């Protein structure tokens, strides 16, 4: 996208600021993610994007991922195992560089190579709001916040309520139906508030043979001892079963985008997320917050058959029985001191994470006996006796290996964050964090090979690996904030943060030496940010310009799946970006606009890929969401909405170009008293794009392939809120 087009949009935003209309209340909305304490958005110097429930629901979305695709600033990166939330161009590192929280509980998984942040296991109907802090949070949240922090809030509004939701739809194919049902109940009993949610969904996927079944159960108990003390307990469980197939080739894609890949994959996922939060106002000056939590994610593959090319033959590759288990438990203790013009926060974090990976791998290569005899003779340097051609299929190689990985990480951290108001127009905030991480890693690989060609299989001299190590890191932040009016401010921010390696990244493997410790260092980054924010009589506008320089960025060189890979601190990268978010309510609050711009220039400055773009980073994302209230009264509302997201080009992991694309959704909402009806079309113009894209590959176990994203679909939704 040319820069003059961006400037034109900025100018358009600015001209809208001179109109007259009713005032909005964006700056008075409450957020919790910036410091961990509830605060009005206007009291936070940095730019934060708040996505409310109305933005996420009533638009036919089946999952949280679907809803966020049309939201400001957020993109998704997919390394082949699923999509991860991305902010500010983290690409393949998004699951380690964007911290995702549910009610301030981190849900990022420890296994970075196979771990996908389990967004699909969060019930969309249970989400109250989403708070996005782009590129911020290293002092308060520690490791892995280079891209930012996303806090998903599921807490209710403490009102007696019953909510029933039925949703259905279909792709433009006979076998493309999907639907879900949701029930939520909330009840106040004296000082105790109870809430329970249940959802079930069944989806026939866009590709032939794809399907997904899942259900969610969530509960909350909030007890208020008095106006100064409360205890909030949240428990969530979800289960999903997915049937799909591997990616398809370019030829198969051109013949039929819905084609199933060669093979079959069945996965089952169990996810548990619990938290206990005690809050107390100890005095007029002191606030106390204690958060304890536990989360577990278990993904099993009872059936997984893909394909591998060995010795010139493409044969089935069986990974059935593999399992990836991740769990985490921890706590966060905070004290806030507020007096006169000073606000001081002291905090301590502890996080224990454990991952267990069992990976099964097996394939068999067969070939005509006369061909095998020639290969064996060539390998032994002997001249075979002339024989008649024997086409009998003969096992040339039967190769299997099992990998058992057990790893844990304990992180302890202390931090201090302070804000001081020197005058009514200038304040200075900043803080520091020290974090120590202890690692324990064990990996055991067992290899079996039989057949005439089994001597070509090398398992290395060290198939068993163990290491205990630690890493020390620190984070800094300094933010001067200039408040030129009651609603407007301009701020500068410097942040120094870090990304610690995951345990699986600390070992390399090659056929000659087997597994070895690589001594990987944490990534360190410096972010410089200039931000602006203001609220006008009818409009809200925020803009951010940032530059992030990362040193010792971890480079992953996968030569062959399961046997030959290296992790090294080779790269230095830079990311220069612009972010603009705006909201307008026009014509007596009947016409609603929501626009955003996210533009990123990224480059690898050092390492073997110097001068290239960072893979899986889209150059830009623009959103333009419009809604017009045709009928609006106390009892009923008829509204038409048109949402648009423009995604820029990127490069995949082979540095092949991925084209830009546009998504458009059209919908109608009608509500009468407690009832609501919604209908619409998603991907209105049937845009063809990809969930996964790998144009080139030299790895025989991970071939070049594509997973097409869904085409046009239709939905209807009926909701009852009481």
TrEMBL record:
SUPFAM superfamilies associated with the record: Porins
Domain TonB-dependent receptor-like beta-barrel span(s) in chain numbering: 225-684
One CC-aspect GO term: cell outer membrane
TonB-dependent receptor plug domain mapped to chain residues: 42-149
Membrane topology: Multi-pass membrane protein
Keyword annotations: Cell outer membrane, Membrane, Receptor, TonB box, Transmembrane, Transmembrane beta strand, Transport
Organism of origin: Helicobacter cappadocius
Keyword Amino-acid biosynthesis: no
Main location: membrane
Family designation: Belongs to the TonB-dependent receptor family.
Example GO biological process: siderophore transmembrane transport
The name this protein goes by in its record: TonB-dependent receptor
Subcellular location(s) of the protein: Cell outer membrane
Keyword Membrane applies: yes
Gene Ontology molecular function, alphabetical: siderophore uptake transmembrane transporter activity
InterPro entries, sorted: Beta-barrel_TonB (IPR000531), Beta-barrel_TonB_sf (IPR036942), Plug_dom (IPR012910), Plug_dom_sf (IPR037066), TonB-dep_rcpt-like (IPR039426)
Source species, domain of life: Bacteria
């Amino acid at each position: 996208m040319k820069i003059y087009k961006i400037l034109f949009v900025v100018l358009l935003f600015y001209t809208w600021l001179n109109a007259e209309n009713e005032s909005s209340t964006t700056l008075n909305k409450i957020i919790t993610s910036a410091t961990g304490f509830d605060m009005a958005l206007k009291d936070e110097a940095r730019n934060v994007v708040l996505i409310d429930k109305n933005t996420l629901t009533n638009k036919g979305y089946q999952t949280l991922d679907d809803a966020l695709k049309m939201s400001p600033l957020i993109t998704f990166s997919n390394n082949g195992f699923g999509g991860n939330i991305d902010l500010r161009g983290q690409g393949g590192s998004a699951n380690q560089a964007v911290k995702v929280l549910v009610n301030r509980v981190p849900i990022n998984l420890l296994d970075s190579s196979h771990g996908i942040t389990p967004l699909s296991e969060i019930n969309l109907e249970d989400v109250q709001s989403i708070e996005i802090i782009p590129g911020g949070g290293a002092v308060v949240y520690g490791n892995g916040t280079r891209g930012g922090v996303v806090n998903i809030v599921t807490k209710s509004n403490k009102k007696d309520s019953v909510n029933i939701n039925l949703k259905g739809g279909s792709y433009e194919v006979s076998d493309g139906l999907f639907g879900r049902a949701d029930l939520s109940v909330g009840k106040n009993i004296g000082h105790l508030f109870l809430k329970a949610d249940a959802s079930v969904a069944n989806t026939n996927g866009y590709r032939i043979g794809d399907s997904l079944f899942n259900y969610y159960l969530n509960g909350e108990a909030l007890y208020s001892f008095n106006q100064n003390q409360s205890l909030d307990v949240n428990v969530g469980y979800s289960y999903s079963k997915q049937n799909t197939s591997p990616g398809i080739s370019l030829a198969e894609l051109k013949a039929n985008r819905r084609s199933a890949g060669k093979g079959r994959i069945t996965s089952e996922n169990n996810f548990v997320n619990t938290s206990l939060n005690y809050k107390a106002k100890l005095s007029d000056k002191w606030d106390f917050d204690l958060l304890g939590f536990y989360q577990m994610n278990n993904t099993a593959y009872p059936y997984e058959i893909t394909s591998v090319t060995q010795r010139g033959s493409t044969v089935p590759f069986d990974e059935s029985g593999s399992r990836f288990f991740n769990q985490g438990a921890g706590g966060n203790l905070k004290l806030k001191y507020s007096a006169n013009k000073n606000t001081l926060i002291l905090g301590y974090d502890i996080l224990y994470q454990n991952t267990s990976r069992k990976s099964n791998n097996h394939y068999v290569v067969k070939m005509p006996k006369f061909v095998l005899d020639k290969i064996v003779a060539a390998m032994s340097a002997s001249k075979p006796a002339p024989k008649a051609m024997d086409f009998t299929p003969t096992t040339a190689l039967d190769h299997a290996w099992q990998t058992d990985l057990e790893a844990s990480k304990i992180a302890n951290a202390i931090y201090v964050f302070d804000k001081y108001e020197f005058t009514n127009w200038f304040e200075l905030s900043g803080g520091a964090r020290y974090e120590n991480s202890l690692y324990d890693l064990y990996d055991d690989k067992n290899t079996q090979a039989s057949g005439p060609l089994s001597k070509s299989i090398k398992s290395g001299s060290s198939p068993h690996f163990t290491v205990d190590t630690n890493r020390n890191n620190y984070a800094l932040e300094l933010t001067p904030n200039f408040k030129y009016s009651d609603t407007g401010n301009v701020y500068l921010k410097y942040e120094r943060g870090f990304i610690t390696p995951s345990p699986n990244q600390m070992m390399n493997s090659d056929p000659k030496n087997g597994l070895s410790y690589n001594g990987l260092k944490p990534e360190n980054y410096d972010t410089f940010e200039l931000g602006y924010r203001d609220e006008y009589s009818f409009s809200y506008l925020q803009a951010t310009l940032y530059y992030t320089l990362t040193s010792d960025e971890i480079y992953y060189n996968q030569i062959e799946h399961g046997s030959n890979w290296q992790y090294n601190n080779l790269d230095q990268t830079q990311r220069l970006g612009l972010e603009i978010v705006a909201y307008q309510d026009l014509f007596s609050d009947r016409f609603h606009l929501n626009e955003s711009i996210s533009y990123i220039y990224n480059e690898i400055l050092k390492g073997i890929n110097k001068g290239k773009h960072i893979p899986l980073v889209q150059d830009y994302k623009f959103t333009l969401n419009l809604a017009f209230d045709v009928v609006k009264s106390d009892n009923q509302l008829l509204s038409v909405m048109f949402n648009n997201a423009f995604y820029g080009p990127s490069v995949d992991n082979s540095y092949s170009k991925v084209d830009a694309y546009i998504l458009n959704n059209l919908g109608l909402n009608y509500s009468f008293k407690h009832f609501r009806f919604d209908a619409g079309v998603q991907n209105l113009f049937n845009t063809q794009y990809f969930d996964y894209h790998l144009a080139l590959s030299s790895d025989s176990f991970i071939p070049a392939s594509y997973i097409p994203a869904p085409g046009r679909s239709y939905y209807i939704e009926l909701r009852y809120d009481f």
